[in-house]
Amino acid sequence: MTYRHALCLASALCCSFIAMAQSRTITVSATNPDGQARTDVPVTVSLPKDIRVRSAAVNISSSSIKSTNHTTTLPYQLDDLDDDGRYDELFFLTDLDAREKRTFTVTLTTEKPAETFQPRVYTDMMLTNKKIKESNKQNLYISQLTVENGTNAYNMLHHHGAAFESELVAYRIYFDHRQTVDIYGKYQPGLELRQTQFYPDAEQKAQGFGDDVLWVGNTLGVGTLRGWDGQQPVMLNDVEHRSQRLVATGPLRIIIEVKDRQWRVLPGEEPITMTTRYTLVAGHRDCSVDILFEDVKPEQRFATGLINVKDSREYSNHRGLRGCWGTDWPVSAKDSVGHKRETVGLGISIPHEYIVEECPANRDNYPFVVRPVDNRLHYDIVFCSDNEQFGYHSADQWFAYLREWDAQLKQQIAIATQQ
């Protein structure tokens, strides 16, 4: 071998070494401050910017394993939150006993993923295919849509906007001036929106699939955010560009983004931009709502809350937790054939710093007046259906769950990372 050939070989080997996959190991700990055990605890890890992560391995550290039968390798997902083509966060779930601290070893690598995990959540958006008559066999899947002011995409989209589910519940968000959060209840735990597409046929209903369980109309539905004119909620009528986007699609969590660019809340006001993200986690029935505002003024107020289900019983602790339990038709009168009256429990938990006023119940809603803090607003929503064979079946049971849920929201799991 000549010197020149040897030099070329050495250079090629060097380049090959550089091109080889890079990896980095991070230690993550999760601590449960609660005196009760928790299941499917979300753990989120921000990814380093100096390595293009494409896959990972999440393992429970041996010192955290109490049983020889315990699974040490956990499913995970990587999410690109800002749509720039690079993953920003790693997400996984764990169970924690009361007061337990559990440690994980996370290995990040630039290699392409070698494994997939069983989905525990599902989401979709679809354009309506008028060539297909069946409401549960639509096939024009999309991942995002933006429309200009004056364009009503409500009937262009199958099930009227993004729909998403965990094993326990399903939600959808209307793509129109209402942007209402609507719900779908289940009989048995499991994923089913791919089959029913929010509209189960008679055969699927006979098999025990779930269905729409709430008629929301123009109400606040379950935690919809609206404007506030000083007396009542205001729809999102004047929006220059309205968007929905599937940000994260599983297998462990769903993130749906709704963006309203240049929303003129009231006539004569300067427009604002509002970005809302709904996050639903596997094994959970509650959904987190995170809102970021641009150009909002300190004195601006907004409204959210719950629909006042017909003849419902209300619960409130007057510190941001509110709920109801009631029964009504889940569709309008003209669409009621094939449906039955549905009983649901609804809930919302708003941190006190965002609350301006808890308004008295009216015919339509159990409303709150809220305000952003540092251009942000956060709250959580939740519901159950009386159809569930795994859930709650009375107002007393539901309100007891709401109190427990609210207490856990206020005692967040402590997550720490060390590189």
List the keywords.
419 residues, mainly beta, 9-stranded antiparallel β-sheet, 4 helices, 42% strand, globular
Q: What is this structure, in a nutshell?
A:
The chain has 419 residues and is mainly beta. The chain has helices at 3-19, 193-196, 202-206, 395-410, and strands spanning 23-31, 38-46, 55-60, 73-74, 76-79, 89-96, 101-109, 122-127, 140-142, 144-148, 157-165, 170-173, 181-185, 211-212, 226-228, 233-234, 239-249, 253-263, 272-281, 287-294, 302-307, 313-316, 321-328, 342-349, 355-358, 365-370, 376-385, 414-418.
SSE layout:
Blueprint: H1 3-19, E1 23-31, E2 38-46, E3 55-60, E4 73-74, E5 76-79, E6 89-96, E7 101-109, E8 122-127, E9 140-142, E10 144-148, E11 157-165, E12 170-173, E13 181-185, H2 193-196, H3 202-206, E14 211-212, E15 226-228, E16 233-234, E17 239-249, E18 253-263, E19 272-281, E20 287-294, E21 302-307, E22 313-316, E23 321-328, E24 342-349, E25 355-358, E26 365-370, E27 376-385, H4 395-410, E28 414-418
